[in-house]
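Thread: ABC transporter ATP-binding protein, structure

OP (GT): Posting the sequence first so everyone is looking at the same thing. Length is 329 residues per the record. Can we get the structure tokens written out before standup tomorrow? I want them in the notebook alongside the other entries.
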Amino acid sequence: MVDLLTVDHLGIGIPRGSNTVALVEDVSFTVRAGESYGIVGESGCGKSTTIRAIIRLLTGKARITRGAVRFDGVDLAQAKESALQSIRGAGIGMVFQDPLTALNPVLTVGRQIAEGLRYHGQLSAADRHARMLEAMRLVGLPDPARIAASYPHELSGGQRQRAAIAIALIASPRLLLADEPTTALDVTIQAQILRLLSDLRSRLGMALVLVTHDLGVVAQTCDRVAVMYSGRIVEEAPIRRIFENPRHPYTVALLNSIPRGSRAGHPLHPIAGMPPDPAHRPSGCSFAARCPNRQTDCEAVAPGWTPDAGGGGFACFHPARAHAEVPHG
Ligand SMILES: Nc1ncnc2c1ncn2[C@@H]1O[C@H](COP(=O)(O)OP(=O)(O)OP(=O)(O)O)[C@@H](O)[C@H]1O
């Protein structure tokens, strides 16, 4: 598979006094065309900040401080706003946790979906209307003509998220960034939206980056996963390896936090303690204070990246033991 998105040594910070506090430190990963890539970790570890930086939609004073984000031969970290505008939508679509943030309360849903075609070639008004109704059918909105004429507050939560997905997909992006797209929804609706995203990804051949704090969601949806902790990727692996042979103690703790017999729909409560405040990270491994495998070297310097034979790797001096490869089938 061809590389579609390469995040290369990305750093994101906010100014504080005369210093910069690093929210994300040195994050690198690659998403291949058509694959589903998960980013998982506890609240505050930098997942949203990382994917918002990809399309330069950081909030407040957060800024990219180093690194590159390559998509289609363009470094989005350096691109001008005009170039970003054409990439947002037609190259990369985005779905947020709360569909209301993506929807304008005073415009009809149909108008907002069709709006995404504004930068997309010379379509007539009739063609735009037809494409809008088609996108609504694609995301499973019932009675598209009626819903197109409705305002966001007239829809259910699940219908709003379907409408937000239609907005993200109308210009046929090759990559969809989804930031906790099911967290704000009822459990039964969560499963439907996840199925919809997986189904659309394979039908449309686009890649998906799915940010979640729920490893059950990752298990159902992703080909590969990055585990983030305190602004860094601490482990990356194909999905099967992460569940069968986790190496980083933080990944092990995340897996142990999923209640037996139920791998979906539960927030992570991995282990006692909290991740460090980004303004006061320790000089060694950020996870050391909570780590059962901690030794004195962990507190001296942050561990580098150890590549794994099966793809991916981990950043830990004292990882969990590797089991023999489980045969496929
Ligand atoms: N614009 C900003 N200004 C200041 N701090 C920020 C900003 N954006 C994010 N942060 C901080 O950066 C850290 C990472 O936040 P981020 O939202 O990326 O984490 P997350 O893993 O996505 O968590 P959640 O699941 O809660 O969204 C947190 O400590 C957060 O408070």
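GT: Both are above now. Quick notes for whoever picks this up: Residues 14, 23, 41, 43-49, 59-62, 213, 278 surround adenosine-5'-triphosphate (CB under 6 Å). Residues 13 and 22 are 4 Å apart (CA to CA).
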